[in-house]
Design a protein that fits this description.
Helices cover 48% and strands 18% of the residues. By secondary structure, it is an alpha+beta fold.
Length: 414
């Protein structure tokens, strides 16, 4: 799926109509969750039927387009199926039992209830009286067929309302192969370090905005609850948080695109960020650096440009020596890797080399690995930098021949 987003310009009455549609969507979603809780054996089709019944029982629900009601039922079923999946996999900890939503921010239409009048104007035709909305943005909808638009969302944020178009189309970008591969070790002192020792500084957007956030938070806490001044203060605080999240996303997108465009194979750690943030001393810094968001964009651009992205297990990548393979235990405060074999490297650079080695072991097929072993290159063991350079050059030859490895296949293999 490919999402195009435009900002919406409309009248105050239309904004109120959008809010009403969002509240109705939230109501239907919560009622569907309640049905599932109260009635044993409720399935997805039952939720569809119940959303239709709600339209007969409540006039405000009948005003919302039928496909928008179905989309709300699908949101409820999404949380239910996610809960079932975690129970089947016996995930430790919380299973994510479906909860009722208090503050929804979007309403979603399928392929009816709206009509594109032109490339910058959309009309919503249900009984909520949203009407004609002006779209502000640089995306060109004329490049796509209207049949490619599968969903239309109206989203409310702190700085206004947005319209999103979800398109089902294949977006590919032809990029000449560079014949390069890269191993990335993400961190807190620097955003990432590659296998050649190059570092990207951690921008720390949240840390830099903390003073401003605290000032607006103090102003909010002094306002009387329920007053219009408190609402204004809340919006100002929300805008600062929104800016931080946008800065973080912009940084991740631009950096991921640059990395994928410059390399044919990108190796990185398969980190479980949810477990890492349990460390209360580092939780804020880990959330601020947004490793998972960076990984998502790496995989997206990898598919778009036809590059190989491989997530490897993070175990012992920092402790093992990249030259001899010996385990050298060190704490987080130790930033230099020193081994008996004479290898002295930055801790993160050593980890990045190990990550790329693991990726090569997983990425090369069995027949190709046997051929390398016959030629005297042991890709499984640690044979030093000379063998490492030979394996890298061999992998580059494979890349130039057009070898294609599926991202999903590599993820499941690991």
């Amino acid at each position: 799926m490919f999402v195009l987003e435009f900002k919406v310009k409309a009248k105050t009455q239309q904004y109120k109509a959008i809010d009403d549609a969002i509240r109705t969507s939230q109501f239907i979603r919560n009622k569907c969750v309640r049905l599932w809780i109260d009635t044993k054996g409720t399935g997805k089709n039952d939720l569809y039927k119940y959303s239709k019944k709600l339209a007969h029982d409540f006039n405000f629900a009948n005003e919302l387009n039928s496909t928008a009601r179905q989309a709300s039922a699908e949101k409820a079923w999404s949380s239910i199926s996610r809960f079932y999946d975690k129970c089947k996999r016996k995930v430790s900890g919380k299973k994510g039992y479906p909860q009722f939503k208090k503050f929804s921010r979007s309403v979603e239409y399928k392929q009816s209830g709206w009509k594109l009048l032109n490339l910058k104007t959309i009309k919503f035709t249900d009984k909520k009286n949203i009407g004609v909305l002006k779209l502000v943005g640089t995306w060109d909808l004329g490049y796509f067929n209207e049949s490619d638009i599968k969903r239309v969302r109206l989203v409310r944020r702190a700085d206004g309302y947005y319209c999103q178009f979800v398109l089902s189309c294949e977006v590919k970008e032809d990029v000449k192969p560079s014949g390069k591969c890269i191993g990335l070790d993400v961190g807190l002192s620097s955003f990432y370090t590659d296998h050649e020792g190059n570092k990207i500084d951690n921008p720390k957007f949240l840390r830099k905005s903390e003073k401003r956030l605290k000032r607006f938070q103090r102003r909010l806490s002094k306002k009387k609850k329920g007053s219009s001044n408190r609402q204004k203060a809340r919006i100002k605080l929300a805008k600062v948080h929104l800016k931080v999240s946008r800065q973080r996303k912009d940084f991740a997108v631009k950096l991921a695109r640059c990395v994928v465009h410059s390399n044919d194979v990108i190796a990185y750690e398969d980190l479980r960020v949810k477990n890492l943030v349990k460390n209360h001393c580092l939780a804020k810094s880990i959330n601020d650096v947004a490793w998972y968001q960076f990984r998502e964009w790496l995989e997206y651009f990898g598919q778009k440009m036809g590059k190989i992205t491989i997530a490897v297990a993070p175990h012992y990548t920092s402790q093992n020596c990249s030259q001899c393979g010996e385990t050298v235990k060190k704490s987080l405060s130790t930033r230099t890797h020193q081994c008996k074999c004479g290898c002295v490297l930055d801790r993160d650079e050593n980890a990045a080399i190990n990550i790329l080695k693991k990726a090569i072991q997983c990425g090369l097929g069995g027949s190709r690995r046997e051929q390398l072993n016959q030629e005297g290159l042991n890709t499984v063991g640690h044979t030093g930098f000379q063998a490492w350079e030979e394996v890298s050059s061999t992998l580059e030859e494979v890349i130039l021949l057009g070898q294609d490895i599926s991202v999903n296949q590599e993820s499941t293999r690991l």
